[in-house]
């Protein structure tokens, strides 16, 4: 029930129940907030005294720190007492002062006289004895090497599959839109996948050669970016390209006369590759050290050529046998074994090339020791 403001204070009858009641004026109550006292539950207090205490404490800290620094400077040794004057006689560089009396003694060498830098390394001679062949097998049991072998074999198999497919479809006598597109797409995939495969293969090849050549028994495979992989693979790519130049020239002149020139890369590649590594430059495929080793250790070089040529013949026979049994129709089934064979050959070749490089490094170290001993004996 609603009423008007003018009816306040009058008696009014309810239209529903007929009850008569007086309309009273409503009272408005205002709540006055309580006064906030200091030191109440909100933690408000007078901080006028705390500022003085903070200043006193800060001053005490500054004074204590200054006293500590003065004490340290007083206890510090005077380092200027032994400073040599500008016009005093200079001491020889090969002598050092033992005490304040001026007694001299020869400068002690930081390197022990009996120190041999290659003593802690492992010998990797180029010998195909049962012991050394067993060591090569142990090297291939390295987990890092096996993982990279599997990884590269897959991509090498894809590269072989797309390359052979592109060549086969491109050489068909009757060409149509299907064969053209197949050849084009396979060529693109072969180039892209093959480039990455060669980059990683060249990087791993360099690592194996350098590690075995250095005589390191425990391998730590580096994690490099794709740019660094390509830079390391350039040694392999440039060396193979330079040694294949005569064959490429003869192919353009007479194909029947070009096949004997395939032996030239097998002979010249290790010389060019090791020369680049010795010079540290892909544009310097010549090294006097490597060329001299051809005459100093010819037996090792002939043994290396015979072993790598025999291994290449075995790999070619395996590849030809797989292709003869499967044919081009089952190329997808033999691509993976072919990739395993190709990558495995390069890994074995790298280890044996590292052994040959170790022989060259060992020979040079012996010559350096002889020269050093001759100089010492002549000076004495």
Automatic annotation (TrEMBL):
UniProt keywords, alphabetically: Membrane, Transmembrane, Transmembrane helix
Region (Disordered): 41-112
Biased composition (Basic and acidic residues): 42-56, 66-112
Transmembrane segments: 145-168, 180-209, 230-251, 257-277, 301-325, 331-352
Coiled-coil ranges from the UniProt annotation: none
Protein name: Uncharacterized protein
Source organism of the structure: Bremerella cremea
